[in-house]
Amino acid sequence: MTIKHITLLLFFFGITITSFAQNLDYPKKTVNGKEFYIYHVASGEGFFAIGRKFNTTQEEILKYNPEAQYGLKGNQELLIPVHAQKAPTESENIFIHTVQPGETLYAIANMYHVTTQKLIELNPGSDKGIKIGFELKIPQSDSNNPSNSDDKYIYHTIAPKETLFSVQQKYNSTIESIMIENPGLTPGTFTIGKVIRVIPNLKPEEPVEAEEIIQEELKPEPTYIQYKVKRKETLFSISQKFNVSIQSILDSNPGLTKLSRNDIINIPTQETATLLEKEEEQPETEIKPTIDSTRLINDIYNKINEVERKNEITVALMLPFMLNQPESVESSLYVEYYEGFLLAVDSLKKQGVSINLYVYDTEKSKNTVKTILNKPEAKNFDLIIGPVEDDLIKIVADFALENNINMVNVFSLKNDEVTHNARIFQTNIPHPYLYAETTQEFCNRFKNRKVVFIKDPNAKEKEDFISTLKTDLNRQSLPYIEHTLEELLANDAAILTGINQPILLVPTSESVSALSRIVPELRKVKEEHPDLILSLFGYP
Predict the structure, then answer these.
(1) Backbone torsions φ then ψ of 114, nearest 5 degrees
(2) CA 178 to chain centre
């Protein structure tokens, strides 16, 4: 091959690569000196698909499109940073998991039997926290553990009304194996939508008795009489005429809702009607948990998760008592908590539990907390309770994870360390989960009302909650409108009076001052328009 040919080939190859890397066929715009593609989300498209298309990550998409953190919707406009693109490799043996309320990085790693580190490598930024709706790349198999091949597993998504018993029966598996393969799975955490791993066919198939086969073969075929409905006849009168039940007529005519003259319907013969009625009397085949079955599952769980009992427990309590400062309402609350904690310790001691208790004043200081963790006894803690501030929780949580110490976050609601640190126990519901449950209940309860958001330009918005609520409303195609209070009251409240259904008003701010402006004005509107159905949605 001549140098000229090689040069042409290289030139062509270079154009091909450059074309793929820099010239995707999407409009561009420059924001603050940085170049972006303008991309409109296709219906049903997720972060993973968009990331592959532009060789970027979900974290980077959210960095420039923060409004997308609660999910994507069709035709939503995104800014995608322009940088060198590379063709996505098809060798990546992965699938996508969408984060559900209450799931943590540790729990998801356990669910799929991979390490949290592997998830973090595939999903940069996930170690800083995951949110509901995030799409995580999950490796199909763990190359570090070849013996644990995923070929023997089935991934099952829990459906409504399913139980551990019904799933193990469906796959001819065992409850014990399902619980071993899904650490932390209990009847309480066996929730709709959760993905679990099942090893099928662990139990030998039960042989079918010949008598059962014969009975099945001898089951009579249903027989019917075709009947033309006469004027003014009803299901009741027809059932009386043929001496069969109304339900047997309905069962013989799927989809029948009402009768009209000259309709041709099936009337079951006496034998068929009796057969149908017997089938209706049969109990549901769905396996429902009983006291005995729950006790059995708990026994299996305790057997699998048997823990070594210690004669002595070392507990550290880290709270901002602020002993070097004048007493305040806040510090006195933590003193009261400590007094209550001592009562609990005393109660446990009476039950034979030996507890070594270390109590520290964090002083709301990073240096103080670091000094505490450098003490000789720190690595021997079995349990740490506290601290309170988010930045201090992070320091202690990292220490707890590194040294296999359990830690309890008692006070902070907004801290999200629990989502990716397996050593943290959270006693209060984190706000993202609380918001998800609240907005779901909101949509179910108020779907027949017109939702009107009231914006107050002078008050700080409850942004996280409002964004979550709007996302859920959009997902369920429930319409809403947004106006300031001034806009709602202009022209004799024409916006509100023009709505022909009950109205639910949602302030976007939780401040008392904003509420004090809204309520009196709405009362006036209600007095002037008594037929208007107005409700106000509030915050704690």
Answers:
(1) -130, 170
(2) 21
Using DSSP, state whether 451 is helix, strand or coil.
strand
Q: Cα 198 from chain centroid?
A: 21
The residues, ordered by sequence, that sit 6+ positions from 288 with a Cβ below 8 Å of its Cβ are: 163
Mean pLDDT within 346-365: 91
Task: Name the packing angle between helices 485-497 and 512-528 (round to 10°).
Answer: 30
Q: CA dist 61 to 47, 73, 235, 383, Å?
A: 8, 14, 60, 39
Question: For 195, phi and psi rounded to 5 degrees?
Answer: -100, 125
Please name the residue ranges forming H helices in 183-263. Answer: 210-217, 235-242, 246-252
Contact 272, 252 (CB under 8 A): yes
Query: What is the number of alpha carbons within 13 Å of residue 537 lying toward its C-beta?
Result: 23
b/e per residue 38-60 (b: at least 16 CB within 10 A):
ebebeeebbbbebbebbbbbbeb
d(CA 249, CA 242): 10
Burial class (CB in 10 A: 0-12, 13-18, 19+), 529: middle
Half-sphere exposure of 45 (CA within 13 A, CB side): 17
d(C-alpha 187, C-alpha 207), whole Å: 30
Cis? peptide before 222, omega within 30° of 0: no
**Residue 423: how many CA atoms within 13 Å on its side-chain side?**
20
Q: What is the secondary structure of 492-529 as a DSSP string?
A: HHHHHHT--S-EEEEESB--HHHHHHHHHHHHHHHHH-
Beta bridge partners of 227: 265
Written as one letter, the residue type at 394 is K
Euclidean distance between CA atoms 522 and 536, whole angstroms:
9
Among residues 492, 491, 437, the alpha carbon closest in space to that of 469 is found at 437
Q: Take residue 7 and report the two structure tokens written for it.
A: 């040069």
CA–CA distance, 210 with 154 (Å, rounded to integer)? 32
Decide if 41 contacts 73 (C-beta within 8 A): yes
- For 17-34, write each residue's pLDDT tens digit: 333 334 567 888 887 777
**224 and 267 in contact (C-beta within 8 Å)?**
yes
Contact indicator for 397, 420 with CB cutoff of 8 Å: no
- Look up residue 247 and give its two tokens: 């339900």
Cβ(20)–Cβ(87) below 8 Å: yes
State residue 396 phi and psi, 5-degree precision: -70, -35
Predicted TM-score (pTM) of the model is 0.46
Mean pLDDT, all residues of the chain: 77
Question: DSSP alpha helices (H): ranges in 429-510?
Answer: 431-445, 463-475, 485-497
pLDDT tens by residue, 451-475? 999 988 888 888 878 888 888 888 7
94: which strand partners? 139
Cβ pair 417, 398 in contact under 8 A: no
In the DSSP assignment, the letter for residue 265 is E
Beta bridge partners of 409: 426
